User: Fold these one by one.
Assistant:
Number 1:
Amino acid sequence: MKTTKHLKVSIAAIAMIVSMSVCNAQTMASGSVEGLKKAGVALVDIDYSKAVIMGMGEQAFASYEEEWNKDLSDITLAFINGINEKTGTLLSVGHSIDCDLVMKIQVISISERGEWKCKAIVTDKQNQNLCEIDEIISKGCKIGTKMHHIKVGASNAGNKLGKYLAKQIKKLK
């Protein structure tokens, strides 16, 4: 009787862990990374216009947190560096580069701990969607200021996206 109860608890725990990891996985909503593989470089543009940042819209958060506008370039750089760390020579992304592809990061939310939820849409010069990646969800941190939490979350989100892109690009070889 005791063994059966432990078995049921163990199975429930495993099911919960599996469902949590599946829910936090990036998904290719449409298209393919083939264009990214061919180009090898993309411009990153982060869009906060529809984001809920620590319970507020971007403008309200910018009014509340004085450092927001000053730190935006650091946040963008943290995200970009996160991607480049994981993609290595497969793909290089930047903020002020001239290239044929744009990777628009649509931020959905940033929590109090700096946990990001966003998606990436890659377009060409004709504004045609090449691919869309949903469910980019990152961890934040517990120590430091709100802006520090956001920067850590940006780096982690970039890492998650970079790891996913590298895996998808390698599949094409």
Number 2:
Amino acid sequence: MTYGVIITILICLALLPWTLYFITYSKLKLVHIKAFLIGGMGWIIALILRTPILISASIVFSKVFQVVIASLLAGVFEEGLRFYFINKFMREDFSAGRIISMGIGWGLFEAILTYVISMISVLVIILYQIEVPDFEIPSQKELLMGGLIGAYERNVAIAIHVGFTIIVTASLMNRKWLGFAIIYHSLIDFIAAYLGLILPHTYQNLWIIEGIVTGLTILLYMIIALILKVRLAKAFTNSVIPSIFYRE
């Protein structure tokens, strides 16, 4: 396979599963598209607001402290803005479909602006033989192996964003869930980033990290099921647990 084919496959693997799910259940109704775009804008604004702090931290602090700061900022800014956007733009209709659409938009915008752009950049560098300091062109096998891990990571990250959107919606009734979302989001980011920092950069270790993050994601959805079942079902217009995964 050529580099172009490999990168095309990787981008499709990163974007298509959740995109097709969104199209299938939403049928591209305007209310879902609006919620999707609100989520995307939320992620972009959260990134812009914390970037100056991240740049300053990269100059002043060690790598470990940079990981701690970046993780905390991700939790505070993303979940804080998620709460603001839900409270401002979604309060009139807490239907499961709109909430999920917002979460998917949040995650897919992140995937496009990080993973997809980086893959396209690599392709441009290879095709036009551009010399970039400290960048070594990977072999086709290396690109495929590393890219598959990245594509899987993006799909899990979108699932995480959907989960936190549900949690933060529930926090409109009980603010403790907003605190939980901030802490749990920061914890996931810290574990993934810290392990990536201290472990040798091998494919096996990267898959181990993704396995841990996947386990934390499963735990997140178990907590969501408990919230919907026991305490906060009234936060959604469709209160039974299965409805949160459909288009009502």
